[in-house]
């Protein structure tokens, strides 16, 4: 706690501890309950562009960095939700970090897709629209590609795409190496 307080201040260190305690109390929550709780928890954190928040055009924060600095952009929300849900026992096969085009904003965006069954239409966790909705109820998003710890996938409208082998994403590799090294 002292190390977190020294690095992030007391208020943000307490937020990190609350998150860790929440994860450790995982009990027998249903997947949907976990999705809603995690989505709501992280969507309370203020949005900042990477340039404003990190001074870089693109930076993927670890969940601890996002909570500790009390801010992030769309990738940071998705990463924090993904690792939280994984820690709560939701298998990697049910989760995908999905790059999309946010049509209303006409910009690249990232959301987290949850697949209750292998070929189901995924539920979308998002920081722009905080409601968890099936992908087919999100016409404002156009899928580009998705990935998880198992690999990279070509987009397919509203569902799972074709796996592109074990290709990795450079930013993902950097993020996971920082998590392993620092946290």
What attributes characterize this protein structure?
183 residues, 40% helix, 7 helices
Topology of helices and strands:
Blueprint: H1 2-8, H2 10-24, H3 31-43, H4 50-54, H5 63-69, H6 74-87, E1 95-102, E2 107-114, E3 123-125, E4 133-134, E5 141-148, E6 151-154, H7 170-182
Antiparallel strand pairs: 1-2, 1-5, 2-3, 3-4, 5-6
Give a structural overview.
- There is one protein chain.
- With 183 residues, the chain is of the alpha+beta class.
- It has 7 helices and 6 strands.
- The protein has helices at residues 2-8, 10-24, 31-43, 50-54, 63-69, 74-87, 170-182; strands spanning 95-102, 107-114, 123-125, 133-134, 141-148, 151-154.
- The chain has a 6-stranded antiparallel β-sheet, with helices on one face.
- It is 40% helix and 18% strand.
